[in-house]
Amino acid sequence: MAERRFSRVAILMGGPSAEREVSLSSGRECAAALREAGYDVVEIDAGQGTDVRTLPDRLRAARPEVVFNALHGPFGEGGAVQGMLEVLGLPYTHSGVAASALAMDKQRAKTVLAAAGVPVPTGRIVPRAEAAAAHAMPPPYVVKPNAEGSSVGVHIVPEGANRPPALGPEMPGEVLVEAFAPGRELTVSAIGAPGEERALAVTDILSAGGGWYDYAAKYETGGSRHVLPADLPSGIAEACRAHALTAHRALGCRSLSRTDFRFDDATGALLALETNTQPGMTPTSLTPEQALHDGMSFPALCAFLAEDASCDR
């Protein structure tokens, strides 16, 4: 690695989202990795509710040179915390305000990806009441929040279903209704400084019991198995890697992103589901596994992100 620009790092984690516990886990792992890499690290829980309002003062008191953003969910990934860090003039990891906000809005992001030549499922935004009252499209289809991660609030409506899904309190006033994409769960990360981005190896995600890759499969012990590199037909792995790079650039992402795909062996259809600007960051998370496969250790990955941090302004 080139000569370091920073020595004191504040890690933002926790925060006010449904993915709070995931973020705390990511933050602790990143803190340990950065300390191993030689950084002076202070861990800051972004808090919940009104605690968030004190975050600027707590950051000023910590006096970091750079902020490592390990937050998940709309507050940490959707541009809000990025905007605050811009105002404070603190360099921060991962994508900037505009890319974060765009990628968090799944339907708008899909519009951008489709225009860039990345294949995506058809879908539309529907009022929650409408989606709960009748089928918004012929089954099979998926109903999910338009701006959440970690499969929070996802409902799969199978072929032949007589009724629409019962939508719980976690669902917002408007939801994304999307054609169900059958097949294998694939994912690939794009990493690198601007102009030097590259795609890592493709992972095939096998959920325990053969189900879909829901919250439990993502985070519970034994919930899934990662096959890396994925055993794919000729050309599909390269297509995934090419689409992941295109998505990263089209959305304006910075440093690191991960794009999730569905591949149907029966038809050969490959569809991009979404791009995540803040992938999970524990040593066994998908992106760190891919980085390690390509020769980058977890401390080296965290150090790269810290050193590549910047402000948009």
From TrEMBL:
<dbReference type="InterPro" id="IPR005905">
    <property type="entry name" value="D_ala_D_ala"/>
</dbReference>
<dbReference type="InterPro" id="IPR011127">
    <property type="entry name" value="Dala_Dala_lig_N"/>
</dbReference>
<keyword id="KW-0573">Peptidoglycan synthesis</keyword>
<dbReference type="GO" id="GO:0008360">
    <property type="term" value="P:regulation of cell shape"/>
</dbReference>
<comment type="pathway">
    <text>Cell wall biogenesis; peptidoglycan biosynthesis.</text>
</comment>
<feature type="binding site">
    <location>
        <position position="260"/>
    </location>
    <ligand>
        <name>Mg(2+) 1</name>
    </ligand>
</feature>
<dbReference type="Pfam" id="PF01820">
    <property type="entry name" value="Dala_Dala_lig_N"/>
</dbReference>
<dbReference type="GO" id="GO:0005524">
    <property type="term" value="F:ATP binding"/>
</dbReference>
<dbReference type="InterPro" id="IPR011095">
    <property type="entry name" value="Dala_Dala_lig_C"/>
</dbReference>
<keyword id="KW-0133">Cell shape</keyword>
<dbReference type="GO" id="GO:0046872">
    <property type="term" value="F:metal ion binding"/>
</dbReference>
<comment type="function">
    <text>Cell wall formation.</text>
</comment>
<dbReference type="InterPro" id="IPR016185">
    <property type="entry name" value="PreATP-grasp_dom_sf"/>
</dbReference>
<feature type="binding site">
    <location>
        <position position="276"/>
    </location>
    <ligand>
        <name>Mg(2+) 2</name>
    </ligand>
</feature>
<feature type="binding site">
    <location>
        <position position="274"/>
    </location>
    <ligand>
        <name>Mg(2+) 1</name>
    </ligand>
</feature>
<keyword id="KW-0963">Cytoplasm</keyword>
<keyword id="KW-0436">Ligase</keyword>
<dbReference type="InterPro" id="IPR013815">
    <property type="entry name" value="ATP_grasp_subdomain_1"/>
</dbReference>
<keyword id="KW-0961">Cell wall biogenesis/degradation</keyword>
<comment type="similarity">
    <text>Belongs to the D-alanine--D-alanine ligase family.</text>
</comment>
<feature type="domain" description="ATP-grasp">
    <location>
        <begin position="110"/>
        <end position="307"/>
    </location>
</feature>
<keyword id="KW-0547">Nucleotide-binding</keyword>
<feature type="active site">
    <location>
        <position position="19"/>
    </location>
</feature>
<feature type="binding site">
    <location>
        <position position="274"/>
    </location>
    <ligand>
        <name>Mg(2+) 2</name>
    </ligand>
</feature>
<keyword id="KW-0460">Magnesium</keyword>
<keyword id="KW-0464">Manganese</keyword>
<feature type="active site">
    <location>
        <position position="285"/>
    </location>
</feature>
<dbReference type="GO" id="GO:0005737">
    <property type="term" value="C:cytoplasm"/>
</dbReference>
<dbReference type="InterPro" id="IPR011761">
    <property type="entry name" value="ATP-grasp"/>
</dbReference>
<dbReference type="InterPro" id="IPR000291">
    <property type="entry name" value="D-Ala_lig_Van_CS"/>
</dbReference>
<protein>
    <recommendedName>
        <fullName>D-alanine--D-alanine ligase</fullName>
        <ecNumber>6.3.2.4</ecNumber>
    </recommendedName>
</protein>
<feature type="active site">
    <location>
        <position position="150"/>
    </location>
</feature>
<keyword id="KW-0479">Metal-binding</keyword>
<dbReference type="GO" id="GO:0009252">
    <property type="term" value="P:peptidoglycan biosynthetic process"/>
</dbReference>
<dbReference type="Pfam" id="PF07478">
    <property type="entry name" value="Dala_Dala_lig_C"/>
</dbReference>
<dbReference type="GO" id="GO:0071555">
    <property type="term" value="P:cell wall organization"/>
</dbReference>
<keyword id="KW-0067">ATP-binding</keyword>
<dbReference type="GO" id="GO:0008716">
    <property type="term" value="F:D-alanine-D-alanine ligase activity"/>
</dbReference>
